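Handout, page 2. Input:
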Amino acid sequence: MAVLSSRYEDMSLHVLPESCIANVLSFTCPRDACRLSMVCSLFKSAEESDVVWERFLPLDYQSIISKSDASSMLLASASSKKHLYLMLCEKPLIIEGGKKSFSLDKKSGKRCYMLSARDLMIVWGDTPPYWRWNSDPSSRFGEVAELISVCWLEIRGKINATMLSPATLYTAYLVFRPTGGVYGLDYHPVEVRVGLVGSESGKRNVYLDSESGCKQQYHFVRRHTRFFNRDRIVGMPASEPARESDGHYPKKRGDGWLEIELGDFFCKEGEDGELEMSVQETLEEVEYDGLQRCSSSSSGGITIIGLRHGSQVIHCSSTQQPKLVAGSLDFSEAE
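Output:
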């Protein structure tokens, strides 16, 4: 046993060529490669290799970058493949004439997309009394859409499933913010859906008003006071307080905008077809002259920046088996 132990003590990773270690690291994921780089200086040097980060970049990354007006500048400023990878993670690349942005999830390298407001189908979007197109310095895109007032709110966005990372669960979000004086959206939910065009997918209701989560924690009842027989409005705690973390209410992003979750989509290996995300107003049943009719309410006071698609990864794996991954109109990998 002593002789065997001595032999193992004499063995060292330093006898392996750096290129061999770099090749092994390329079969992990970006997060694990960075962790392993702290083992020793040899691993650190191997982790910096272009061999590693070329594998972490999408196979068609050059084609994607070529769709940007800033492609030449980006490639010229990248000192290495790792530097290029980090730039694509930290600053979304505007592509397709400003209609979309592309980025990578830093931990997994999965593709993330955002569709600009101009890339969406917005009902009455080109009608000035209803929608106004503005520039906004806080937006990555040249234009944002401001909702002035409409009696029917409907927004749709599409992206080809082949543009997404395979074997990945994506979550789609609508990115927006109130412009002051939001109305018609406080207690009135909208219906959202995510799925392939022509397929059956689940629908659910969400609220676009960021204060709805607080407002829904109370219901109001009318009571009479003893003096002067006047009515008094009393706020009573609701039986089941709403939770802002359940995905039915907007959350604030780091850039100051809000986002509301629309739904999930698992992109299978070889998935084809168009993925569609939709946000539309729900109809309310009202009684008029004894008849039940459907009615919509006017709404306004929000600015749309776009749709985000994000992916979620539960486990990093080079094989990307569906059981190991889970998945932003921002398309990004779910976390």
